[in-house]
Design goal:
The complex is a heterotrimer of chains A (502), B (322) and C (332).
Chain A (H helix, E strand, L loop, with lengths): L8 E10 L2 E11 L4 E6 L5 H9 L6 E6 L2 E3 L4 H6 L2 E4 L11 H6 L11 H14 L16 H14 L4 E5 L7 H16 L3 E5 L3 H7 L2 E6 L2 E2 L3 E2 L5 H8 L18 E10 L6 E6 L3 E5 L6 H9 L4 E8 L2 E3 L4 H7 L1 E4 L3 H4 L7 H6 L14 H14 L16 H10 L8 E5 L7 H16 L3 E6 L2 H7 L2 E6 L2 E7 L5 H9 L7
Chain B lengths: L1 H9 L1 H17 L15 H13 L7 H14 L5 H26 L3 H20 L4 E2 L18 H19 L1 H11 L1 H7 L3 H27 L1 E2 L7 H12 L10 H20 L4 H41 L1
Antiparallel strand pairs in B: 1-2
Chain C lengths: L7 H39 L6 H26 L8 H19 L2 H24 L4 H20 L4 E2 L7 H4 L1 E2 L2 E2 H19 L1 H11 L1 H6 L4 H27 L1 E2 L7 H12 L10 H21 L3 H25 L3
Antiparallel strand pairs in C: 1-4, 2-3
Classes of the chains: A alpha/beta (502), B mainly alpha (322), C mainly alpha (332).
């Protein structure tokens, strides 16, 4: 590297801690103009924390960030944008009932007060052309666009800001092959214009196609950037794994019972091909895949809230028609959603009442709640899950993430489920509580329940499950007993298909 | 030409309903004069417009009818200063009050429905105070004569109403602040993240709402020469009905002044037709209620139908790939 | 978004904030009862005729109709469905039916039953439509307009009067000097409180209001709970209508214009969360009591109607804002 060429972005010694947890430790990253840098790493490795830092959502505890030679304080989102950083998020940030052109101009400082469609559409067309949407009518409302078009408009919005550094956070999760090519083309074009690109992804195929350099995060530290040409899939995978397993995971099952849940030839919206899986009593089946892999759709289908077009689901050999959560619960299928704040817990309600919510009818003969029985039963669940029994009256929203998750999972104990479906069992949960949750899941399983865990954390899935099935972009790729998997193989399977990296 | 057909498609439902209503009225009541319906632009049309603006921004201003009554009371009380002056003072004062409301709602982060339930009582109370508890009237009854002149079928009042609707329409469709209201209404989180100023939007929305109510109430009082503490109470329900029947979405982010005008027209033709037939006021209340429920139910079933079609499309895609 | 703090320094901050939140919560719960107590104490000292049997009786009577409806409406608010803005129309209809059926059959109990049944039917319809997911404000406003129009058409806009005075028994009957409406208020509130706190249906209504999606995932049916909430509300409407009709012995289509707002104000002032999941019928009755007390004091002091109305508006807005701020502070 010619040291006279100024770096576009230079992060030195950046650290960030949350209490005792080091999310980032001594991160050094240098980014050149026109360079496409891929950030890789498992969940919790630190890359999303680093992106948040650059976006201005959080501030570092130590370290400096310099852009084009000047040190910057990215204390707020505004400061980050003013420094020339733009982020293309996973969630869409456009307004559906306004037109494409209007969205491109929305919220801009110094925008004119008169919005004539002709002027807006003209300037929109110019920007849309750069993302390959030159045929799109800028007067169309965002909500009429396809997901892929919306994603490209998101990118176009970023272009409208004329940023020096563009960060892409998993931009292709919901896109088809052709659409991904479009996005990658845009990224290349942006880099050719001299902008610096940070591309966060789990898809190695894309990394090998457009990235110049790769920085791998592990345990909060960033490894020195490597040229993509020097790397292979195996080398990347090896660098990514290596988290301390420790005593986090309980022993695997000694033996399984009969098949408790079987899905046969299931056609589910969002998945290519049929879904076939079985879970036996005493078995933890792990489904793993990244964003857009289809695992969420499968879990929803098994829970009864997804779109199932064909096929059968059998519980204990009897076919069931799961039309909603009520039928699911009555049939003995418990489901923990991945976003407990949204639909997993009642935040303003006490622990006791949260725990009793799915099985209230069991302590309410004739419709009148026996508070004594409710308390007793809830207490039993609480002690089982190591929830502080003295706080049964506390609103769940006031608890730590780990305790909240214990409540979200624990409440299903009371319905004596046949099958427990859990998505992202330890999202937003600290290490201590994680071990407890894993232990509880294993215990539940050993008592005769079939457990299906879906998680994007390959380490977790491998440590916890008896059988692991991998998914990539809407299709199942492999299924083996956990003993037959190595972590690097798992990571490979969820991050690419052979065709993509040759 | 294509724009015209787009426009027609957009308002097709309301246009059809309006046509049906007009024809029914003519059929039932031979002396029916549709032009008379436009008179009610003040107060109904502008109140519906004010309600629409807050709905578009994703809020609800239940105090608009009380604001109208207050403006009327102020107009009559201040009439000795000259009718035009008192009108202006009343409208400006109420608009400022509305802007204050919007600011408070944004600053407190309180649900506008809850807040305006309280202010609807408060402002009605203010009206009582101004009126001194009784119906009041302007001494000089000739002062309002000007309002009775007519140009074609438009009186100065309905002309003013039309102008307001047109100006608001342009504001909502072509100005930055107007479009930002749509953004706040349909995707508030995203809009604020993009840089839209929430507080400013609330001040504008509730200011316009109060202003519209004030215009409606002030001019009504100027025309009749009197004001009462319980004036225009029914305007809230009728205004909401007009806005919703016209096609303003209660979910926010959607609707134009054309929707407001069409909704107003439907309700107004209905009411004046029924009144002309000799039916008492409560009959039109009944029909208005029916229309209101019919519209929201229709919107609901259309949404369900849309979702059903989405699923069918998704199914086709899945079957194609599998 | 945040990971759990595990060091002692951060967890003490966590606990301190929890302490502050709890304190704010306690203030919020105690605010209204303490306020009423303060008002009563001040009024007893400052206003001469306040602490008399007649005054207290008048206050309680005035509270009874509004309070019963407010207690019932709390179920709707708890379920996350805001309020019903069609109270007046439903009450008028039920009152008319009570007087009409009661006069026609000569049986006051039959009349009362018919009134409550009518309220249940119209409540069921509204509950179903709201349960589909439609906006409760619009639905109840529209239904109110329809009911008002229908009632007016059926009665021809004329006064419907009781044919005999026996229909007034529900208002005049007294036990130990306490008028029946007040007793009914107390009993109704107690029952409502019990149903909300000790039955599965009541619990499900609360949970629905707390988080609709979580409720669905837990097997609670939004439609079912919403309908139950509206049915509970409708019983309140029917009962209150009978009591009201018994007091005046005549009803006209456009009676009780301020009733809806009084009831909504009572629920708001009482402190039940408008977002749902948190509150109680008892609070709403206390809210109704507070409003009735303030009104009566103003009457005693000689404040004219207009000013009273204005003062009431100020009080409602002020309390709503304060309660809102307290709630925000107790959940930060």
């Amino acid at each position: 590297m010619d040291t006279a060429v100024p770096y576009r972005l230079k992060a030195s010694g950046v650290s960030k801690s949350y209490g005792a947890i080091r999310a980032l430790a001594d991160v050094d990253i240098e980014l050149m103009p026109g360079e496409v840098m891929a950030l890789l790493g498992e969940n919790g490795a630190g890359k999303s924390t680093f992106v948040k830092l650059l976006s201005g959502l959080i501030t570092p505890d130590e370290g400096t960030i310099a852009i084009d030679g000047d040190e910057v304080q990215l204390a707020t989102v505004n400061a980050s944008q003013a420094a020339g950083i733009a982020v293309v998020q996973q969630e869409f940030s456009t307004v559906g009932t306004l037109s494409v052109a209007e969205n491109l101009v929305l919220g801009q400082r110094g925008a004119r007060w008169w919005w004539s469609p002709r002027r807006l559409n003209a300037s929109a067309r110019a920007i849309l052309g750069r993302v390959g949407l030159e045929d799109l009518d800028p007067g169309r409302l965002i909500e009429t666009l396809s997901v892929a078009e919306m994603q490209l408009v998101e990118i176009a919005r970023v272009l409208a800001k004329d940023a020096r550094i563009v960060i892409f956070d998993e931009p292709t999760a919901a896109l088809s092959d052709a659409e991904i090519e479009r996005v990658l083309g845009v990224v290349k074009r942006l880099a050719a214009e001299g902008r610096s690109i940070i591309y966060v992804t789990h898809r190695l195929g894309e990394v090998f196609e457009i990235a110049d350099t790769v920085v791998i995060f592990r345990n909060g530290r960033s490894q020195p950037a490597q040229k993509v040409t020097d790397l292979t899939v195996d080398k990347v995978v090896t660098s990514m794994i290596g988290r301390e397993l420790g005593d986090l995971y309980p022993d695997r099952s000694a033996g399984f019972g009969e098949i408790v849940l079987e899905a046969r030839d299931l056609q589910v919206a969002g998945l290519r091909g049929d879904v076939n899986l079985t879970v036996r009593r005493g078995e933890i089946l792990g489904l793993t895949g990244q964003l857009g892999s289809g695992t969420t759709e499968i879990m929803k289908a098994l829970a009864g809230t997804g779109d199932v077009f064909a096929g059968t689901i059998e519980l204990d050999g009897t076919p069931v028609a799961l039309r909603g959560r009520r039928e699911g619960i009555e049939s003995g299928v418990a489901y923990c959603s991945p976003d407990r704040k949204k639909d997993g817990i009642f935040a303003g309600v006490s622990i006791r009442r949260n725990l009793s919510s799915p099985w209230l009818n069991r302590v309410a003969p004739l419709g009148f709640i026996s508070r004594r029985r409710e308390s007793a039963e809830a207490l039993r669940t609480a002690t089982h899950f190591a929830i502080d029994a003295n706080r049964m009256g506390t609103p769940v929203g006031n608890l730590s993430g780990g305790n909240q998750q214990k409540v979200a999972v624990g409440k299903w104990l009371g319905i004596q489920p046949k099958v427990l479906l859990v998505e992202e069992p330890t999202r937003g949960v600290d290490v201590g509580a994680r071990a407890e949750i894993y232990a509880q899941l294993r215990q539940l399983c050993d008592s005769g329940v079939g457990v299906i865990v879906s998680s994007s954390d390959t380490n977790e899935v491998l440590g916890l499950s008896d059988t692991v099935t991998t998914y990539y972009r809407g299709a199942q790729t492999a299924s083996r007993s956990a003993n037959a998997w190595s972590e690097s193989e798992l990571v490979r399977e969820v991050m690419h298909r052979e065709e993509e990296t040759r | 030409m294509r724009q015209l057909t787009d426009w027609l498609k957009r308002y097709a439902l309301q246009l059809i309903v309006l046509a049906v209503v007009i024809i029914s009225m003519y059929a039932a009541y031979p002396n029916f004069r549709v032009e008379a319906s436009i008179e009610r632009l003040i107060p109904l049309g502008v109140i519906a417009a004010g309600l629409a603006v807050t709905m578009i921004a994703g809020e609800f201003d239940l105090s608009i009818a009380s604001m109208a009554a207050l403006a009327g009371a102020l107009t009559v009380t201040l009439a000795p200063l000259g009718l035009v002056t008192s009108l202006l003072i009343a409208i400006v004062a109420c608009t400022l009050l509305g802007m204050l409301q919007g600011w408070a709602i944004a600053k407190l982060g309180i649900n506008s429905l809850v807040f305006t339930v309280g202010t609807l009582v408060l402002i009605r109370g203010l009206t009582w105070l101004v009126c001194g508890g009784l119906a009041i009237s302007i001494d000089d009854i000739t002062a309002s004569d000007i309002f009775y002149s007519k140009f074609l079928f438009l009186s100065p009042l309905s002309a003013a109403g039309l102008v307001i609707l047109i100006v608001l329409g342009i504001f909502l469709a072509r100005t930055k602040w107007g479009r930002e209201l749509y953004a706040l209404g349909s995707a508030r989180h995203e809009a604020i993240a993009a840089g839209v100023r929430y507080r400013r939007g609330m001040v504008i929305a509730f200011g316009i709402s109060a202003g519209c109510g004030a215009v409606g109430g002030a001019l009504t009082s100027a025309l009749s020469g009197s004001a009462a503490p319980d004036a225009l109470e029914s305007m809230l329900v009728i205004g909401i009905a007009a806005a919703l029947v016209g096609g303003i979405s209660i979910a926010g982010g959607r609707g134009t002044m054309v929707n407001v005008f069409l909704g107003f027209a439907i309700i107004s033709v209905l009411s004046s037709g029924l009144a002309g037939m000799g039916a008492k006021g409560f009959v039109s209340q009944l029909y208005i209620g029916i229309f209101l429920l019919a519209v929201v139910l229709a919107e609901y079933f259309l949404k369900r139908f849309g979702e059903y079609r989405e699923r069918a499309r998704g199914r086709k895609m899945a079957e194609a790939v599998a | 978004m945040t990971t759990t703090p595990t060091t002692t320094t951060t967890s003490t901050i966590f606990q301190e904030r929890a302490g502050f939140r709890q304190a704010m919560n306690r203030v919020r719960n105690a605010a209204l009862p303490l306020l009423i107590l303060a008002v009563y104490i001040i009024a007893s000292i400052a206003v001469p005729q306040f602490l008399t049997f007649e005054t207290i009786r008048a206050i309680l009577l005035a509270t009874s109709v509004t309070g019963i409806i407010a207690a019932g409406m709390t179920a709707i608010t708890l379920s996350g469905n805001l309020f019903s803005l069609g109270v007046t129309a439903s009450v008028v209809l039920s009152a008319v039916i009570y007087l009409a059926v009661g006069s026609a059959t000569g049986n006051i109990y039959l009349g009362a039953l018919a009134a409550i049944l009518a309220a249940l039917v119209i409540g069921l319809g509204q509950g179903y439509i709201v349960g589909l997911g439609l906006n409760p404000v619009v639905v109840t406003l529209g239904a109110g307009a329809i009911i008002y129009g229908a009632t007016a058409i059926i009665t021809g806009g004329e006064v419907v009067a009781a044919r005999t005075n026996t229909l007034g028994v529900f208002a005049t009957f007294a036990v130990l000097g306490i008028p029946l409406p007040v007793i009914v208020l107390i009993v109704f509130t107690a029952v409502a409180w019990f149903l909300t706190d000790y039955t599965r249906i009541g619990r499900n209504i609360r949970l629905l209001g707390s988080n609709k999606e979580t409720a669905r995932n837990s097997g609670i049916s939004p439609m079912g709970s919403t309908i139950w909430a509206f049915l509970a509300f409708s019983v309140g409407i029917g009962v209150a209508a009978v009591l009201q009709a018994a007091q005046t012995l005549q009803v006209q289509a456009d009676n009780f214009p301020e009733l809806t707002m009084n009831v909504v104000a009572a629920v708001l002032v009482g402190g039940t969360a408008v977002t749902g999941g948190d509150g109680s019928p008892v609070r709403s009755v206390i809210g109704a009591l507070f409003i009735a007390t303030i009104t009566q004091i103003m009457v005693l002091v000689g404040i004219p109607q207009g000013t009273r109305y204005f003062a009431l508006g100020v009080v409602v807005v002020a309390l709503v804002v304060i309660l809102h701020l307290l709630r925000k502070a107790s959940s930060r």
